[in-house]
């Protein structure tokens, strides 16, 4: 099994913080986010040689020993899915856990994906509402729909909700694709979609797969998860969780 970290983006909402570094190199608790991602994957059981990092913007500023690097040279004109395809040789060969580089998560969430045995799976955070109320004056404005079927598969994701009832959890940016699942994805993107492949984000892809009848299993976690979207998020988390670096760093 492999792990793939998507770290190609600049993260324009970080403002001047990413003028010279990619978003994943922004620091929380004094540590680069990307470095913490890799450390968490190692605690979950991945050897460093089985961790891949997809770079793009300012790849020269990423210094990680022992990982496999992939590169999206067209990072400025493409979205996250294109970055993921740069690691297709791994995705076609064995199960892969995929994670974003701008999140903080617990190794147990990763282990849940590693152990689930599903072709297509994601994790979701159950404690999101309290976090969103701390991040936003009107939490619903920044929420996205996340609805589950009774069998635990994903019914809908990534649309604008009309009420909190349509948000049963928060997508975490952690996924598992087996080779058979990746094959389904490669077939699915050849069919008409709401966005071009170049502009395809992960939640739009997941909704597209749902529309084609492919089951995507959702695994809940209540372990702390954080999304670092801007510098205000980082300042908030350092204030709310001053000892976070001891557990996640």
UniProtKB/TrEMBL annotation:
One of its GO terms (molecular function) is nucleotidyltransferase activity. Keywords: Nucleotidyltransferase, Transferase. Pfam families: NTP_transf_3 (PF12804). The keyword Glycoprotein does not apply. SUPFAM superfamilies: Nucleotide-diphospho-sugar transferases. Transmembrane segments: none annotated. Residues 3-118 form the MobA-like NTP transferase domain. This is Phosphocholine cytidylyltransferase family protein.
């Amino acid at each position: 099994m492999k792990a793939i970290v998507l770290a190609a983006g600049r993260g324009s909402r970080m403002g001047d913080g990413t003028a010279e570094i990619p978003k994943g190199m922004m620091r929380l608790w004094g540590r680069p986010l990307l470095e913490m991602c890799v450390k968490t994957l190692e605690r979950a059981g991945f050897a460093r040689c089985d961790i891949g990092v997809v770079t793009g913007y300012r790849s020269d500023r990423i210094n990680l020993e022992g990982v496999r690097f992939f590169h999206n040279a067209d990072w400025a004109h493409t979205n996250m899915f294109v970055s993921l395809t740069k690691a297709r040789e791994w995705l076609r060969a064995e199960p892969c856990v995929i994670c974003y580089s701008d999140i903080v998560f617990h190794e147990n969430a990763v282990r849940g994906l590693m152990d689930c045995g599903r072709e297509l799976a994601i994790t979701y955070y159950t404690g999101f509402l309290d976090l969103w109320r701390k991040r936003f004056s009107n939490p619903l404005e920044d929420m996205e729909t996340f609805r589950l079927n009774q069998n635990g598969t994903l019914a809908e994701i990534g649309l604008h909700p009309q009420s909190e009832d349509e948000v049963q959890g928060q997508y975490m940016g952690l996924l598992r694709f087996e080779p058979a699942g990746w094959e389904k994805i490669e077939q699915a993107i050849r069919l008409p979609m709401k966005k071009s492949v170049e502009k395809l984000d992960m939640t739009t892809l997941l909704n597209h797969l749902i529309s084609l009848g492919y089951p995507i299993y959702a695994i809940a976690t209540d372990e702390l998860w954080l999304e670092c979207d801007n510098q205000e998020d980082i300042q908030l988390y350092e204030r709310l969780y001053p000892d976070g670096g001891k557990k996640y760093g």
